[in-house]
Amino acid sequence: MKIPYPEVLEVLENTFRKYGLEASKSNKCAQLFTQASLDGVPSHGLDRVPVFLEMIKKGRINPNAEPSRIETFGFFERWNGNLGPGPLNAFQSMERAVYLAKEFGIGLVALQNTNHWMRAGNFGWQAADAGCIGICFTNTKPNMPAWGGKEPRLGNNPLVIAIPREKGHVVLDIAMSQFSYGKMNIYLREGKAMPFEAGFDREGNLTKSPAEVIAEELALPIGLWKGAGLSLVLDMLASVISGGQATHQVGASGDEFGLSQVFLCLDPERLGMHDWIDQKLDEIINNLHDSATFSNQHVRYPGEHILAIRKKNIKEGVPVDPSVWEKIQGFLS
C-alpha cells in the first residue's frame, strides 16, 4: 500500500495521543516512525508501531516520561531515560550530543534505562543534518549466540556512524546480526527464505529460514566470530559508560526494555576539519564508484540512495504492508 505522508502522520499522531502521549510527543514520535518507512526501512518504521503500542499497554514504556540528567563532566553527560519512549529519548540524546559538540568540539551523551529506539539510522541522519559526525550504539535483549554458543547470550546491538557531506551524507546503520529481526519478520510475513544464511536452527545448522532463526533467537553474527566480539564490546561500552543494564540484564524479564545507549558527536568546524572534510570524502567516494564489479550493479556508499527513496515516497506515498496498516488502525478504533 502507498499512503499519503500527511495521512500517515495524522493516523499515528491520533493513535499515540490515544495511548497517552502528549501532543508534542505524539507529533515527534509519528515523524520518527514515519521517517523510517519513508526512507525505505519499514522493518523499523511502521512495522514496529504495533509493538510500541503493546509495550505501552504492558507498562514497559512510560509514554510521557522525560529523560533526566544524572551527571555532567563538561563534554560528557549521563542521563536516565526513565523508561520513556525510546525514539524520543534517542532523539533528545543526540540533540544534546550535537549541542555539546558545538560547544566543546565533541559531545558524548550516555543514556541508561531507555527503550528501543526503533530505526537507529534516524539519529545518524539527525547528527549529519546538524553538520556533525555522529556515532551511536545500543544494546538489546539477548538475541544472538556467542561464536560457538548454542543459546542467545549476545544482543545484535546496532551501531550507526554518520558523516556529514555536502553532496550527500554517509550514514552506516547496521546491527551485529547478518539480518535484523525486523527484516527477518518481513520475510517471514511474505513466506520467503532469507537471501543469505540468517542464523542457526536448533541443531546448530546455518539456515535461511526466518521462522527457525526467530524461534530460537540464534541470529548469525556479521563476520562470524568478529561480529560476536564486536557485539560483546558494544554492550560493555553501553553499560559501563551509561551505568545502565547490560544485555543479560535486559533480557531477564523476557521483554526488551531498560536499554543502555551511547551518542557521540564531533563538530568538524570546531575540530579543524571543515576545510578538507568534503574534499576527502568526495575523493574516497569517487574511488569507490570507479570499482569494477561482477555485474552491472552500481557500487554505493552507505546511505547513498536514501534521499532518492525519501523523495519518491513523499511523492507517491509511504509504503506499508496492508496487514500492518490494519493493525495500526485497529489500535485507533
UniProtKB/TrEMBL annotation:
Gene3D superfamilies according to UniProt: 1.10.1530.10, Hypothetical oxidoreductase yiak, domain 2 (3.30.1370.60)
InterPro entries hit by this protein: Mal/L-sulf/L-lact_DH-like_ah (IPR043144), Mal/L-sulf/L-lact_DH-like_NADP (IPR043143), Mal/L-sulfo/L-lacto_DH-like_sf (IPR036111), Malate/L-lactate_DH-like (IPR003767)
Keyword Oxidoreductase applies: yes
MF annotations from Gene Ontology: 3-dehydro-L-gulonate 2-dehydrogenase activity
Enzyme class of the recorded protein, top EC level: oxidoreductase
Keywords associated with the record: Oxidoreductase
EC number(s) reported in the record: 1.1.1.130
Domain of life: Bacteria
Pfam families in the cross-refs: Ldh_2
Keyword Cell wall biogenesis/degradation in record: no
UniProt protein name: 3-dehydro-L-gulonate 2-dehydrogenase
